[in-house]
Amino acid sequence: MTGTIFPDLKGKSVYITGGASGIGAALTDGFMTQGAKVAIIGRSAADDFIAEMESKHGATPLFMQGDISDVARLRETIQQAVGEHGGLDVLVNNAANDKRHSLDEVDEEFYDWMQEVNLKAYFFACQEAARHMEVGGAMINFSSISYMMGNAGYPIYTTANAGITGMTRSLARELGPRGIRVNALAPGWVLTQKQLDMWAKPADLDAHMERMCLKEHLKPEDMIDPTLYLASTASRMMTGQTMAVDGGVVVSG
């Protein structure tokens, strides 16, 4: 859990996609620790998580059930968050699906669904959020180092993540004159419960560790402080950037 305090985030209105599980749940916890008002959208009921946040923080995130690939529902939940929290200061596009697939097995339906979840939803969340943000607003789009590494095994996912960073740069240019910042955060292999259950085989973990400068696998909590930083005025002159948080697998510059 974060020990860093960002005083300017207290009372801010934050909207997080997929904010009740995996990395998103850690982010919700992190923003609530700062005293922010958090709204989240998720596909599945999250009663246990909401109760956990109530017990820990004495407040509950605004949970709205929905699928981010349903653009109308996505817009509706952002509007609801704005109404209930008095505006929108921070958007975190976090929800994604890295379902494994090979080139040959992909059909049009699966391709379209993967792009709807991993890129299209990000674009329309940014579009709707921009309609409600004022000077000082911040958007954080979660990408992934997977496309930087040229990983095989999920080519539609890596395509979408490359698109996220391109979109981030263009939106930063468009929204900058309005005082709204747009940055991307590219995690390395974060060992959520889903990753541990489905894909984190010992041999693959060992091979990934060999590429890491810091010899410690990433946890969801490791994404909290970088996200808070990008949301905070601590990064007020940073926009259009992609920040890798991966233990030193990829390098830039």
Automatic annotation (TrEMBL):
Molecular-function GO terms, alphabetical: oxidoreductase activity
Residue ranges the record marks as coiled coil: none
All copies of domain Ketoreductase, residue ranges: 12-189
Keywords, alphabetical: Oxidoreductase
Pfam family, one: adh_short_C2
CDD domains, sorted: SDR_c (cd05233)
InterPro entries: KR_dom, NAD(P)-bd_dom_sf, SDR_fam
Entry annotated with the keyword Oxidoreductase: yes
PANTHER family in UniProt: OXIDOREDUCTASE, SHORT-CHAIN DEHYDROGENASE/REDUCTASE FAMILY (AFU_ORTHOLOGUE AFUA_5G02870), SHORT-CHAIN DEHYDROGENASE_REDUCTASE FAMILY PROTEIN
Family affiliation: Belongs to the short-chain dehydrogenases/reductases (SDR) family.
Name the record gives this protein: NAD(P)-dependent dehydrogenase, short-chain alcohol dehydrogenase family
Organism taxonomic ancestry: Bacteria, Pseudomonadati, Pseudomonadota, Alphaproteobacteria, Rhodobacterales
